[in-house]
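Lecture notes, unit on protein representations.

Consider one protein chain, 207 amino acids long.
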Amino acid sequence: MYLPDAFREDDPRALAALIGAHPFATLVTTAGGAPLATHIPVLHEPEPAPLGRLVGHVARANPHAEAIAGGAEALVIFQGPHGYVSPSWYVAEGPAVPTWNYVAVHAYGRLQPSDDPAATRALLERLVATFEAGPSPPWWTALPERYLAGMIVGIRAFALPIARLEGKIKLSQNRPLPDRRAVIAALRRAGDAASLALADAMAAASA
């Protein structure tokens, strides 16, 4: 990832927080010399130090299952708030062009397959507990054991110990503070969820 110093984020704790806040990731490997991408929820674990590991799963029918079984090198991409920034929003004098503000984290490592049904079931329980936190009905415990066992057979779980972690927080840090405040105000006026999320991220970065 292209990382100008103004936008680089190297703090593993900050990057782990971004992963936790935006866990729907893109898993990328190569297959037959061509890129292969799968979009899946992924959880971050703090161990092994210093960067931790990612855990998730794909369907066994997915070509990525073969890459996982073979221990392929992989890139996992996490995308945070992002959006278009118009130069008409700036208040500073001088020429300017449009840009796109965004937050992204790239994690690199070698995939490790897991064929242990108990470990795979524990992963599924963690995913459900993470994404259904709150007063959701206990549907998981009501699943017939035979049905659940069949579903577990149909997926390939994996871990990815993180060998390298890159973060980019491009939120107009290279612009004067009045311009950043003007962009935040324009995004808030837009009012849609994506614009508001980007405005919040910019406000936090400018605090």
